[in-house]
Amino acid sequence: MTLLETDLDDVPAPQGQLTLKLLASRQDTNFYGDIPGGWLVNQMDQAAELAAGREAGGRTATVAIEAMDFLSPVRVGSMISVYTQVQDIGHSSIKIDVEVWVRPPHGQRLEERQKVTEARFVMVALDDNGRIRAVHSD
After folding, report:
1. Which of 5, 70, 100, 111 is most buried, taking the most CB atoms under 10 A from its CB?
2. What pTM was computed for the model?
3. Are 11 and 111 in contact (CB under 8 A)?
4. Residue 70 CB: number of other CB atoms within 10 A?
5. Per-residue pLDDT tens for 83-107?
6. CA–CA dist 65, 103 (Å, integer)
7. Backbone angles phi, psi at 4, to 5 degrees
């Protein structure tokens, strides 16, 4: 069955903008040869920082990460896609939803991708001295 033959509403899809795409390689594994959750969190943090930096027009830092569950393991050779979506902008903070989707090694079809994890990152805008500043100066 092809994607066109299925009901598109039934096919899960990433939310937000593709911000980071990379390959999970052997150098990213832990002692047991698995891709560790901490490596994925690092990629998510980088994507959140890119998205927040675009919105804030400069440097940002992570101040919180809301609950995160890992839905499935990531294998070496998987293509990792990190999506971001700005949810809220405060005076100095930006809340960004981040999703990680993977396409397994040798996965060719769109329906082979699967969500691995998601979390909301809270970022703050920083000035050149590392102090919190307004996201948008008036």
Report:
1. 100
2. 0.87
3. yes
4. 12
5. 999 999 999 999 999 999 999 887 6
6. 24
7. -70, -25
